[in-house]
Amino acid sequence: ITPQFLISARLTGRSHSLTTFPVTRSFASTIVSTMATKPTFRHILDLSKDEKRAFLSSFDSVLSDCDGVVWHFTGPIPGVDKALQLLRADGKKLAFISNNGMRTMDEYRKKFRTLGVEVQQEDIVHPALTTVHYLKSISMRDAVYCIGTEVFKDYLRQAGFVVLDGPKERFPDNNRAANQVRVYSEYFERREREPIVGAVVVDIDVNLSLQQLMKAKCYLERSPDCVFIAGATDYVIPLDASMDVIGPGYFIDVLERSSGRSALVLGKPGKTLAQVVREQFQITAPKRVLFIGDMLPQDMGFGTRCGFQKLLMLSGGTSKEALFEHDNADQLPNYYADSFADFIELYNERVANEE
User: Which residues are the active-site ones (predicted)?
Assistant: First the structure.
């Protein structure tokens, strides 16, 4: 089987009939208690005049996700260009952290240039380069089996690693007399002259197949010293506000459960990535950093791990309803906004008040 990244349109506005049932006193108390609990996060445009001023003064640096926040896969997000320019003009340092290893660094910089923002390579955290950094830090000398895009694999190759991938050919499945499962038996034994695999890396791969997952599983089971690395762990990747695709998180789960191994997460919200980010940007005062993203587990969870202030944008993978229903405190923001365009209104109000 070859599970492609299937596009699914989100269903909105569907009505549901509710079955009535008797409410006990304890259950009613729980409902009242839950309704009385107000979220601690607020929309940045709902802040008072003094609170807005204090918010803009509370951070020196902005670390932002890209897809669903700065742009959509399917096109631009209105107002982002002007908002980024206003933030930079206000002296804020801008840097970006993406879980998307499908673009090269040059492609990222070109997209920022269209927004009127010049970004250097050191201002972008790319999952493939984070993986290269980690593999070098542990002095990896063996081959790397990679489930990922050619862009991701090319970065590994350019860093000097031997990269294995595939298989890419289809298994024959038209011989009903044969046992199709038996074709995997050769994966379990190392062949003569086959390189030793020291790491299995799993990231976004639009051509991922059961054969690749089986290869990865066997490499992990063959040696306890084989490092298991996950890049992006997203279960859903938004294309825009109405469409999303299946992310690699589910396939990482399959490998973890089938091999009995836990992946080292080098994408958001991984602990190792948090350390890389603190070192790369020389962060000594995390509360003076505003982290912006559109996903609750990956982005807000990462912000919590790093000790940053957190702003959730509703322009990508999280709806307002999902935000208010979420009950994991570590994955909730301090603030939320509709999109980066809300910063334009904040700065316009500040200028009007100063006049």
Answer: 65 (nucleophile), 67 (proton donor)
